[in-house]
What we know:
The protein is of the alpha+beta class and 119 residues long.
Amino acid sequence: MEITDLDYIDFNPIFSNEEDVDGDSGVATVVKxxxxxxxxxxxxxxxxxxxxxxxxxxxLQSIFGKSTEDATAIMLKVHKEGQGVCGxxxxxxxxxxxxxxxxxxxxxxxxxxxxxxxx
Length: 119
């Protein structure tokens, strides 16, 4: 069967819930929702007088995957400026990493403080 007149085609897709004033469907539209990017959070290490520099480097390498050079640079920033950023993550990942740092520090009897704050 060959269709030669478009009036015979009954194809009126409606992708949105809107209709014309007279109740007929209008131009087919697709409603796209924009996905909001998740907020990011900084994981910070804070200086104290008891945690060894070697332990801070170990934490940065084992939990945050930092190279020896990057871990040393962050450790020195913590030592000299009082705090340093270990990484920036979504909230759940940031909280998990901060908790891992706290647990490891507690196991090793270090008072190392790790906090999370919005970027």
